[in-house]
Structure formats: structure tokens, C-alpha cells
Amino acid sequence: MTAVDPIIQIHNVFKYFGTLQALSNVCLDVHAGEKVVIIGPSGSGKSTLLRAINRLETIDSGRIIVDGKDVHSGEHDINRIRQELGMVFQNFNLFPHKTVLGNITMAPITLKKMPELEAKNLAMSLLEKVGIRDKADVYPAMLSGGQKQRVAIARALAMQPKIMLFDEPTSALDPEMIGEVLDVMTQLAREGMTMVVVTHEMGFAREVADRIVFMDQGQIMEIAPPNELFANPKHPRTQKFLSQIL
Amino acid sequence: MSPQRQSPTVKIDIGDGAAIPSKKDRGLFTAWWVAFVGAIVILGSLCLSYPDPYWRILAFLPDGIVVTFQVTLLSILLSLALGLVTGLGRLSQNRVWNLLASTYVEVIRGVPLLVQLFYIYYALGRIEAFSNLPPLAAAVLAMGICYGAYMGEVFRAGIDSIDKGQAEAARSLGFNRRQTMALVILPQAWRTILPPVGNEFIALLKDSSLVSILAVSDLLRRGREFASESFLYFETYTVVALVYLLITLVLSKAVSHMESKLNYYDRS
Ligand SMILES: Nc1ncnc2c1ncn2[C@@H]1O[C@H](COP(=O)(O)OP(=O)(O)O)[C@@H](O)[C@H]1O
Ligand SMILES: [Mg+2]
Fold first, then answer.
1. Distance (Å) from the C-alpha of residue A24 to the closest C-alpha of chain B?
2. Is the CB of residue A188 less than 8 Å away from at least one CB of chain B?
3. Which portions of chain B are predicted below pLDDT 50?
4. Are B173 and A156 an interchain contact pair (Cβ–Cβ within 8 Å)?
5. Neighbours of A13 (CB within 10 A)
6. Domain that holds residue B205
7. B168/A107 Cβ within 8 A
8. Number of domains comprising chain B
9. d(Cα B248, Cα B254) in Å, to the nearest integer?
10. So what's the pLDDT on residue A13?
């Protein structure tokens, strides 16, 4: 294995829910620092693929290798692998019984044995970064959707992951709050984070993505840089999908 | 405790024990006061107007009240421990643990409490190590084992009520199963669990009167002792019933108070 191996390697992955084929022979490589945006109609397997990368979802065959470690083989401590993979969910999934600060510091303190003060300083600098320093001591219930999602991003970043996975991070937000979350993600992308993002925000995809993956019915139909994919989609399904949403 | 208690599903059923009043429920709220003030007035005026026998009866009971609380408190602690293990077992992917927990719940739910009490009491007597167990300890074991099954269902429902996204968020951060349960799920489930636990406490306190049959000098047994010497059955059981009523009314108030205190992080 060499230093230039892709940081995520997805080889021939199949996944079934009963008889439903959720992933069908999916292959994808993501290089360190790369931003990959996954688009596709609802039910096409985008979330399943993303969740298979950190083993929130099992797979039936194929291999997923993250930073040199086979995620589904059981040979490696999955909890260690997950520390390298930050994940942001559509519904935020903040811990309601913890303050914003508690949400962010909990994992570094517990899992990395980070001293409390250091974790707090880290959390404050992350809150600064996502633009809600003043909300450190409130409970999530008091935040707007956009603020919640920014806290969720800060919480994932607190583990200093190598890769960030986003599953429709703005889909549950009121329209006026989408921008503030996308701004944070764009900033993160500029800083060189490796990102895999499932989204319907085509403006964001166009601006940030190195490559766009179009999925349909559990399959990757097409992978192309944004200019190419938006201007000149090759697959008829991609054309149809883009014509519906653009 | 009614043998046909429903297993709680989404919303935990508050079916037994004294009804827990909430401010929204005006009727119940008033009923609580009527019962409470009524019980005090009746008990007070009986004791003042006829100190003999009523005051004598009341003065005879405090030892029993202490024992009743001892049995209740110790049993509830045991049942909480058993309930946690059972509730986790019922949700566990570990087949053996899951089957053991489910069987325990099924068996306990299928046998009347009084029969269980007799059974455990006399079964324990046959086991060498337990044969010298004091009646109080045997009673606590029996009550705890019985209520542990119900508590298991309360725990299971409480844990089940937490959105799956919470566990996923914790796992995705790198927390293992145990950490996720201890740091994320249980602290939240506790709020769903505590009100029914409070209610089980009240139900258990009432059911603890059954242990009077096992040579445990609880409130009811003290009453029986007094009555069988004085032959004042009606007077004695009037006082005993009023004392039980007052205790459960006060406890139900405490439970509803505790419940409202538990919602601190929901206020927005
Ligand atoms: N836990 C599950 N059980 C059964 N079917 C599921 C489950 N999760 C997803 N599916 C199905 O798998 C397919 C892909 O789902 P998903 O990956 O969530 O799609 P997307 O994120 O692209 O909308 C859908 O048909 C969905 O209904
Ligand atoms: Mg999805």
C-alpha cells in the first residue's frame, strides 16, 4: 500500500434489505482531500452507501477500505475506524440531555481522554468556526435547525476526523437556514477536508465537488466532475434526474 | 397489582397505583385534594373524638409503617437492578440473554403475586444457604423478583422510546455499545422510565401488604395484631386503610413533582 492509495475504497459492494437491492455492485474511490457529492432520486441507495462507509449499515458482499482498514471485515476495531469518520445526519441527532458544549466535548473527553479544559477550548474554537460561540451553554432544544446542524458539524469535527460524511445535512432545514450550513461546509472543504456529501443542493455541488456521483436504484450510473455532469450528462437517467430538479 | 397489566409500548401506561395528578387534569387534581383532605379530616376527627380506640390504633402502627417502607424501598431497588438487566436483555442481540430475560418476564407475569410470594418464600426455605433468611429479606427477594419483571418492561419501553438516531450519532462518533447505552440512551430514557417507576413504587407499596402473610410485621400485619387482640376489626382496618391512602396520596404527589422537574432540557 502506498501513500497515494485512495483514503476510501469501495469495491463491488452489494446490499440487500430482504429482497430489495439497496446497493448493486457499487465501486468508488475517494482520495484524501477530495470532495465527492452523491446525488440521485430518493430511495436510490445514497444513504445506505454513506452509512456503509462507517458500518452503520452492514453490507452483503464487497469491501470498503477506509484509510487502509477493511471496515466490514471485523479485523479492525470499528470504534477506532469511526473516530476517523465524522458523520452529519439529516436530523442532526444532537444529544438533547447535553448542552451544546457537552455535545461537542463528550466524545473527545471519553474516547480520546482529552483533558476537560482542552476539550472545552477545542469546542469553543469549533463553535467559533461554525459561528455560534454564544450558544455554548444552551440545550439543543433552544437552537434553530440551522444552529443545530452547525453544532452537529462541530461535534463531528471535535474528534478531528480525516473524513466527513454528510447525509442530506440541509434537507430538514427551513430554506432560510440552508445557506448558513452550506457556508460552514464550504469553508470546511476549502480547508482541505475529505468530504462525501449526499445532497440535493446543486449549487453547493457545483461549487464544492471535485466529482459528482449519480446513483439510481442502488447503482452508480455516472461519475463526473460537476461541469461535465451538469453540462453534459451521459446517462439518460442522469439527464432525466437533472432535468427534474434543475 | 393486576395480573393483566399491559406491557408498555410507546407511551408507558400509568395504570396502577394512585393516579398521578397533573395541573392540566383539573378533575383529578381536585379529586386528589378531596381524598387527601378527607382522609386527614376523618382520621384526625376520629382520633380526637374517640382517642380510644382510634388514637391507640394509630399509635400502634408506626413500626409497621417503617417496615412497609423498608420492604418497598429495598424491593424497588432490587427490582430496578433486575429491571435494567431484563430490559437490556429484551433488547439485546445476545440470544441467551434475550431468551432468559423474556422467559423471566413471561413466567412472572403468568403467576399471581401472592402465589409467587409463597413460592419464593418456601422455595428459599428449602435451599440450605437461604433457610435462615429473615422473613423481611425473603419478602424483599420475592417482591423484587416479581417487580423486576415489570420494571424490565418499563426499562425496555423507556430505552425503545429513544430515537434510533441518538444511538447512530453516538456510534458514528466512535462510542461502543456500552458507552452509547450509558452516556446517551439511558440518561434520556430515564425521563420516560422514572414516572412509571414512581408509579410502580406506589403499586409496590400497596402490594407489600401481601408480605404480612409471611410473618413480616408491616403496616397491615401490625393492624392485624392489634385487631386480633382487641377484636376491634372494623376500627383497626379503617385506620389502616386511611394510613395506606395517605401514604400513597403523598407519594403520588411527589412522583408528579419529580416528573415535572425532569423536563429541564426540553424548555425552549
Ligand atoms: N432499514 C431498512 N430496511 C428496509 N429497507 C430499507 C432500509 N433502509 C433503506 N431501505 C430501502 O433501501 C432503499 C435505499 O434507501 P436509502 O439508501 O435510504 O435511499 P436514499 O438515501 O437514496 O433516499 C430504499 O428503497 C429504502 O426504502
Ligand atoms: Mg437518504
1. 24
2. no
3. 1-10, 13-14, 268
4. yes
5. 25
6. 26-267
7. no
8. 1
9. 10
10. 98
pLDDT < 70 stretches in chain A? 1-3
Does residue B178 lie within any of the structural domains?
A: yes
Question: Which residue minimizes the CA distance to atom 7 of ligand 1?
Answer: A17
Cβ contact, residue pair A111, B183, below 8 Å: no
Helix (H, G, I), strand (E, B) or coil at A118: helix
Q: What was the ipTM of the complex prediction? A: 0.94
CATH number at residue B150: 1.10.3720.10
Reply yes or no: is the peptide bond before residue B53 cis, omega within 30 of 0.
yes
Q: What residues are paired with B49 via a beta bridge?
A: none
Q: Say yes or no: B177 contacts chain A, CB-CB below 8 A.
A: no
pLDDT value of position B8 = 41
Q: How far is the CA of B179 from the centre of ligand 2 (A)?
A: 27
If you measure CA to CA, which chain B residue comes closest to A139?
Answer: B265
Rounded to a whole number of angstroms, the distance from the CA of A234 to the nearest CA of chain B is: 35
Instruction: Decide whether any atom of ligand 1 lies within 6 Å of the A22 Cβ.
Output: yes
In a domain, B11, yes or no: no
* Cα B23 to ligand 1 centroid, rounded to whole Å: 43
Whether B56 is in a domain gets the answer yes
3-state secondary structure chain A: CCCCCCCEEEEEEEEEECCEEEEEEEEEEECCCCEEEEECCCCCCHHHHHHHHCCCCCCCEEEEEECCEECCCCCCCHHHHHHCEEEECCCCCCCCCCCHHHHHHHHHHHHCCCCHHHHHHHHHHHHHHCCCHHHCCCCHHHCCHHHHHHHHHHHHHCCCCCEEEEECCCCCCCHHHHHHHHHHHHHHHHCCCEEEEECCCHHHHHHHCCEEEEEECCEEEEEECHHHHHHCCCCHHHHHHHHHHC
Residues of chain A positioned with their CB less than 8 A from the CB of B171? 56, 82
**Which residue minimizes the CA distance to atom 21 of ligand 1?**
A47
Reported as a single tens digit per residue, the pLDDT across B114-134 is 898 888 888 877 887 777 778
User: Which atom in ligand 1 lies closest to the alpha carbon of residue A218?
Assistant: 14
Residue with CA at minimum distance from ligand 1 atom 6: A17
Report the predicted TM-score, pTM, of the whole model to 2 decimal places: 0.84
> Domain for residue B32, yes or no?
yes
Q: How far apart are the first and last CA of chain A?
A: 41
A214-230: pLDDT as tens digits: 999 999 999 999 999 99
